[in-house]
Amino acid sequence: MRKNSAEFLALAAISTALVFLVGGCASYEAIHVSGTEPEVRLNEAELPAGVLKERITEIDTSYAEPRTIYRVSHSLGTSKDSVSPGNNYQSLWRGVRACSWLALNHQDPREKKKYALEGIYLGRKARQKTSVQAEAYYYSAICLGALLDVLKEPNVERLQEMKYCLEVAHELDGTCDYGGPARVLGTLIVETSDYAFAGFAVGTLEEGIATLEAACGKAPKFAENWLLLARALADAGEYQRALAAIDKTFACEIPADYSVEHKNWLIQGQNLKADIAIKIDDSVPATAFEPK
């Protein structure tokens, strides 16, 4: 399950943020990493309510599956063109969402960096509009993680901000993106748990498992939560619990906005089941599985 060394360097850098996180998190809203985040050009004109409603529909339609670079880029562009006193936050957080997807899925590292930086900027703008909605915090954290993955170098301020955003998102709405805040944090803890000797661990494997269980509790019908929990349990040698989690993965509904990913999660779950069968001397049959 462990990532390759380049991927782990970025993950370890992210984990370092948890060490530096202290009380008074609201102060992180003032953080700006000088000379890195671009000032994105946004609409400044007030738009009629009817136009804003149509724009939000267009933004969400462009982001809906099947997602492509072109479609999500269009969602981002419409978000930036639709910022207006009538819907400042609604357009901004959707722009951050689009940036997070583009930063994770674009093939060009330069474009990944560009979208990650743009998402960080838009996320801060959105959080200035309201501090009681989870979306901007959550997708800001993903953009920060994507930037760290591209740069392959630690940055304490970015790491602090990422951790802050995840914790606030979880507190405001733990169900955001199907338990996303706990899912991201739990995976981070699990992936770094073997690196305590280097000062990178943010918790124990057991703590990571507990956090992933919290994600499952927030969205029990979302397959990725159970798949990640199963992987963590397998890492801990708790094979029967891992198999039970895999069965939960197979039983999950297909989410309308993650249908492509859902099929991949089922395939990964079957592969994990086969790996566990080998580890316990083939005492658990690894039957063929065809995702619907």
Write the layout of secondary structure elements.
Elements: H1 5-20, H2 49-63, H3 69-81, H4 88-105, H5 109-129, H6 135-151, H7 156-172, H8 180-192, H9 205-218, H10 223-235, H11 239-251, H12 259-279
Helix pairs in contact: 1-6, 1-7, 1-8, 2-3, 2-4, 3-4, 4-5, 4-6, 5-6, 6-7, 7-8, 8-9, 9-10, 10-11, 10-12, 11-12
Explain what the structure shows:
This protein is an all-alpha fold and 292 residues long. The chain has two domains: 5-173, Serine Threonine Protein Phosphatase 5, Tetratricopeptide repeat (Alpha Horseshoe); 203-292, Alpha Horseshoe (Serine Threonine Protein Phosphatase 5, Tetratricopeptide repeat). Helix content is 65%, strand content 0%. It contains twelve helices and no strands. 45% of the residues are buried. The model is unreliable at 1-35 (pLDDT under 50).
What's the short version?
By secondary structure, the protein is an all-alpha fold.
Number of strands: 0
- The string of secondary-structure elements, in order, is HHHHHHHHHHHH
First-last Cα distance: 26 Å
What number of domains?
A: 2
Secondary structural class: mainly alpha
Outline type: globular
User: Describe the biggest sheet?
Assistant: none
Rg from Cα: 20 Å
Helix content: 55-70%
Keywords:
292 residues, mainly alpha, 65% helix, Serine Threonine Protein Phosphatase 5, Tetratricopeptide repeat
